[in-house]
């Protein structure tokens, strides 16, 4: 039997379920068993006991920026929840509901306001970010980032700029699902280039 949890979102928003236009983009579970939901209404949290809350990652009410439209999330090895909205990244504090904005503005050749974030994947100290126009690698400790793009003259570049999914294997290889095929980075790092 299926159980429907949509009512939890409607109740949190104070609206009737039939008026709800809920879009879920991602679900993850932390070590405590809490389920996290990436939605167009914010970040949903469902405890193992059944308590539900809808959190906002930012107090911005600018609907045009989709400030609380959560597109993807991931939990790193230290237990931090990383959240991608349409144009921004936030990291949740472990013991509170405070979110820290993580700037992507200083990454060469990447312009967050002109791009859309699609997928996050945390692995060790690296946060991989797939976008509509390229790939980002962010060092979670230093905040230093690097961008990768398809370059038609470079066979070792990313095969396509629209990165939809990311998988880090047990061997440390990183696979990227794009609109133009699959790219892979070996465990030796990005300096060796991508294979396809």
Describe this structure in words.
The chain is mainly beta. It has one helix at residues 6-13; strands at residues 24-29, 35-39, 42-46, 52-55, 70-75, 81-85, 89-92, 99-102, 117-123, 126-131, 134-139, 145-148, 163-168, 174-178, 181-185, 194-195. The protein has one helix and 16 strands. The longest helix is centred in the N-terminal third of the chain and has 8 residues, at 6-13. The protein is elongated and about 55 Å long. The protein starts with 5 loop residues before the first helix and ends with a strand. The mean pLDDT is 91.
Calculate the mean pLDDT score and round it: 91
State the share of residues found in helices, binned by percent. under 10%
Strand arrangement across the biggest beta sheet: 1-2-3-4
Task: Specify the structural class.
Answer: mainly beta
Element string (H = helix, E = strand): HEEEEEEEEEEEEEEEE
Sheet bearing the most strands, described? 4 strands, antiparallel
Distinct helical segment count? 1
Radius of gyration: 18 Å
Structural shape? elongated
Unreliable parts:
none
Multimeric organization: single chain
How much of the polypeptide forms β-strand, as a percent range? 35-45%
Number of strands: 16
Beginning-to-end CA distance, first to last residue: 42 Å
